[in-house]
Every structure is written in C-alpha cells, then in structure tokens.
Amino acid sequence: MTRTRLTAEERQAQLIAAAVTAFSQSGYAGTTTDQVARLAGVSQPYVIRLFRTKQELFLAAVQHAGDRIEAKWREAAERDPSLGGLGDAYGELLAQPELVTMLLHGFAAAGDPAIGDPVRACFGRLYEVVRELTGATATEARDFFAVGMLLTCLGAMRVLGPDAVPPQPWSADLLGTFEGLDKKMS
Amino acid sequence: MTRTRLTAEERQAQLIAAAVTAFSQSGYAGTTTDQVARLAGVSQPYVIRLFRTKQELFLAAVQHAGDRIEAKWREAAERDPSLGGLGDAYGELLAQPELVTMLLHGFAAAGDPAIGDPVRACFGRLYEVVRELTGATATEARDFFAVGMLLTCLGAMRVLGPDAVPPQPWSADLLGTFEGLDKKMS
DNA sequence: CACGTTAGTTATCGACTGATAACCTGTCAA
DNA sequence: TTGACAGGTTATCAGTCGATAACTAACGTG
C-alpha cells in the first residue's frame, strides 16, 4: 500500500470535503480535527498544518458549502430563473443535506464573532445571489429563505433526508404541504 | 456571606435557566457544565449530581425552552387566536432570543439520536399546539414556522436581536420585509 | 439535643483534543 | 549522484472536561 502523494492544494480540497461531512454531523465544537483527518486518510497534525487552526478549517468548510449552493443556484437559474426553479434545486440539495446542514452549523456557531462575521457574509451573498438571479422582491426572497431554513432545520432534525427517522403524524402533516415540490427526495 | 440553601427542585429550576442561557450561546458541545454551574453559583460536580449527565441537563434545557414558548403562545392565543397573534408573541420572544436559540441548538445537536428524539417530540408538540390554537391549515402553519425558523437563524447569526451586529445592505433589505410585524425589537 | 436526611463542597481522575516539534521520504532538477 | 524542497508522519504536551468519591454542613423532627 503506497501512500498516494497529493499536492497541498489537492489535499486541502479533499480535507475541506471531509470537513463538510464531519462538521455537518456534529457541528463545530462537537467535531474533532482527528475525525476530519481520518475521513481524508491523513494524520491529524497534518490537518492543522494545512489549515493552521480548527477554526480556519471550519470556516473553509462553511465557505465551500456556500460556494457549492451558490453554484447550484446559478446552474438552476440558467434553465429556470424563477424562485420555483431555485427551490427545486434546493430540494435536490436536501437529498444529500451535507451542504445545507453545514451552513446551519455555521449559523449555530456564529456566536463566536470570528465565525459569525464570515458566516453572515456567506449568507448575505446567497441572499443577494437569489435576488439577482430571480429578480424577486425582498418579500418574495424572504419567504423563499424562510421555507429553506425550515427545510434545513427539518433535515438537521432527521425529519427529512436520507437519515430521516420514521414519520410522526405531525411530520407527515407538515411534509405533506410540500407535495409537488419534492423531486428527488429519498 | 452565607450560602443560600435551596431545595433540590428550586436549584434544578435555577440550573435549567442557567443552562438555557449558556447552551443558547455556545451549543451542546461548546458549553461546559462548569459554565452552567458558575452561572448558577454552585459547583460543577453538583450540577452533574442533580442531572446525572450533561446530556440530561441539555435535554431539560430544551424541554424548558419548548414549554416556555408553548406557554407564550397559549397566552397570546387568549387575546388573539390567529397566526398573526402568535407571530407577534414570537417577535417578543426574539427580543430575548435565549429560548428560541436554545431550540435551534437542539436542532443542531439532533444528529445524536439520544438528543434527536426528544427534540423532534418538542418541535412536533409546538407544531400541533399552533394548529390547535389557531385552526390554521397545514400550509399556513408551515409558512408560519418557516418564517419563525428564518428569524431564529437570523437571531443566532446576530443579524437580529439584542446582540445584533451593525446592519449590512442585504440584512437591512431582508429585515425591512418585517416592517409592521416587529413590536418590541431592541 | 441527638440524629438522620438533604444540600452542597473539595479533591481528583481518566480520557480527550488542538497544537507544536522533530523527523522521515519521495520527487525532480542540475 | 546529490541535494533541496514539498508532502506527510510519529511523538508528545498542556489544557480541558465530564464524572466519581469522599467529605462537610445545615435543617427539621422526635
């Protein structure tokens, strides 16, 4: 078994992907740099070497999640530049909720100013991108993000998505309101 | 300085209040049982003695937040049993976002099944209470909670509430859509 | 006033975790 | 060949944190 040697850039990209997976499950404080390292198949000190601190690794993961969501929306807008089109794209993201849950953990950790500032910038950019792509009014965009946040929370709660728990009366009731909106729900 | 001696019940109630304050700032993994203990003016081992584990303390705090929010809604419904009435009540809660942020951290920590189950039960109960109190349809209740989740996330992000950061163009734009809905925003 | 019960503390431990330092090794150009 | 740089590891530490054990002190009651 020869250890595959990658460039620092490639390794960083791989580690950021691993960080998104790990942090989206247990959040900032609940995730170990060693867990991220093992996911990528490298040693824990090397993770620190490449990102300096756990915090910078976390911020890189938040940034990556924001970038991927923005890219998804831009791609969707090329076919259907309406809120409905972006909503469908968001529904597809929720089938693999890593990215959106990562963002939620960014919100949750925003109490620390060093994390809050980049997280707000990331969310603000997403808001502006949606308005720019769809031409929606502020109120329309607000309702769009409102539903998005609800779905994101439901995903984190395991009411929704691949790791969803058996439905309860209330959750079936609530999810039923999204009929015709979910395309690729597992 | 004579240490005030309380009954276990009173001390538990006091500790739960302290736990809500502490956990709502740093989340489950990011908060120390010692921080909760200091907030209540007791020793850390005594917190563990009263709640057995950190996890049970956290769950008690989540439960308490859910109960308080439910009580607030029931009280509001006596005056105005409409979604608008409950929405105003929620707006008042956001002025002191401890309770709602506590709940958000419950969602974030729901990846652990031992936490997820009670958290889902808590949220499900709130959903049913809203529908029962207002007679709203599932879709109306969904939109109500959607906006609530957005506001909760914005509070956690310090876009909203007492610890809010200076507004950005996008946040002013977004918050502007709530004009006429915010009564007691600080 | 003795005495059991309840409230609370101090001391301490074992496990964990982020970070540092020192070292190793494959690759490539001269 | 050699040597230097970039990728990566092992060893290790200092601090932290949840939890346990043993002890102390106040209260109420017969």
UniProtKB/TrEMBL annotation, chains A, B:
Q: Which UniProt keywords apply?
A: DNA-binding
Q: Which PROSITE patterns match?
A: HTH_TETR_2
**The organism's place on the tree of life at top rank:** Bacteria
Residue ranges of every copy of the HTH tetR-type domain listed in the record: 9-69
SUPFAM superfamilies in UniProt? Homeodomain-like
What is the name listed in the Swiss-Prot or TrEMBL entry for this protein? TetR/AcrR family transcriptional regulator
Which Pfam families has this protein been placed in?
TetR_N
DNA-binding residues per UniProt? 32-51
